[in-house]
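Lab channel / #folding
Pinned by the channel admin:
"Please post every new chain as: sequence first, then the structure tokens as a reply. Keep commentary short and put observations after the output so the thread stays searchable."

First post following the new format, from NK:
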Amino acid sequence: MDLPISPSQVLLYGIAIAAGLIYFPYIVVAYGRVSIGMDMNSPRAMFDRLPDYAKRATWAHQNSFEVFALFAAAALTTYVSDSASAQTSLYVLAFLAARFLFSLFYMLNLPWLRSPMWVISMVCIANLFSASFV
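Reply from TO:
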């Protein structure tokens, strides 16, 4: 794999992109809130009135926060252990693709596609941690 940036940069940029991906589903949540009439006095109480796709987007958004901490730790561990390589770059890119698709499939209510994306992202995290200990 011949990328125009170094494997170390892929790790760091991957963390930044993963942080941005947290908010991909929230765009759909915001659209759902606007479509039912935003209630600034009690925004959390609006959840029950949200369309189903917006509820699923909320859950995808929350899951993205949870997995980001693991990914950031794995990527930073790989970075500080000076274990960045073409292989770790592949793990980062696969993680980012899987997380984007995870959120998309979650919002589209496709659990048979969403679950494999979750597994792929967890395998990428495990492999990043593993690469840093070799």
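NK: The chain has a mean pLDDT of 91.
TO: also worth noting, The two ends are 21 Å apart (CA to CA).
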